[in-house]
Specification:
This protein is an all-alpha fold. The protein has nine helices and no strands.
């Protein structure tokens, strides 16, 4: 195989790792298996990333970049503040659960991070970045409507994401054939939206 610069090989290896781990789980993502997935020597993985921690960080950062970009690209439409929040939340839901295996993959990383300090550092960075993105988007949306949020945007974002993570876990547990969420999960998602909007406006939540 012709020599490929590390700057080009790195994203190829990250994608190979994501594809492999999506199919078979994080535990299957050895450097040997990832090298075989791409058809390169195992030494190429070590040369490109140095340590497995660096590889895991690159994988998590790519997963984060993919779904944050998808959410940012979603148009909130021309409705009310509440309607636009709902549109963006459903875009986040699709970005998180829509592609088979990616939701499971991030959940696996999160579970492993509870006992692995290196992974904990990586997943903490992911969590803080997502909270920061949600805070930024909520602040911008409120400003576009000339609204003053009833509570700080970051407080609302953290509370919303905590509920969203719980519903993601529920989806993984009770999802139906074809990876479709059951009706109760979608109803709870809409209630979470209503609660979030209520916190933003300082009014009681309505479904």
């Amino acid at each position: 195989m012709a020599h490929v610069p590390a700057s080009e090989r790195r994203p190829q290896l990250v994608q190979a790792a994501i594809d492999l781990m999506t199919r078979e789980g994080v535990a299957a993502g050895s450097t040997r298996a990832i090298a075989a997935e791409l058809g390169v020597a195992q030494a190429t993985v070590h040369y490109t990333f140095g340590t497995k921690k660096d590889l895991y960080r690159a994988v998590v950062e790519q997963l984060k970049a993919d779904f944050v970009a998808q959410v940012r690209a979603a148009s909130p439409g021309d409705g009310s503040f509440g309607e636009q929040v709902r549109t963006l939340v459903h875009a986040l839901w699709e970005a998180t659960t829509g592609e088979h295996g990616r939701c499971v993959l991030l959940s696996e990383f999160g579970a492993l991070a509870m006992r692995d300090q290196d992974l904990r550092e990586i997943m903490l960075g992911l969590q803080l970045d997502i909270e920061g993105t949600a805070t930024e988007m909520l602040t911008a949306l409120a400003a576009a409507h000339g609204l003053t949020l009833a509570r700080p945007a970051r407080e609302i974002a953290v509370l919303f994401l905590s509920g969203f993570d719980g519903l993601t876990t529920r989806h993984l547990t009770v999802r139906r054939p074809g990876d479709q969420p059951d009706p109760a999960t979608l109803e709870a998602l809409d209630l979470l939206v209503a609660t979030t909007v209520g916190l933003c406006l300082g009014t009681p939540a309505t479904a």
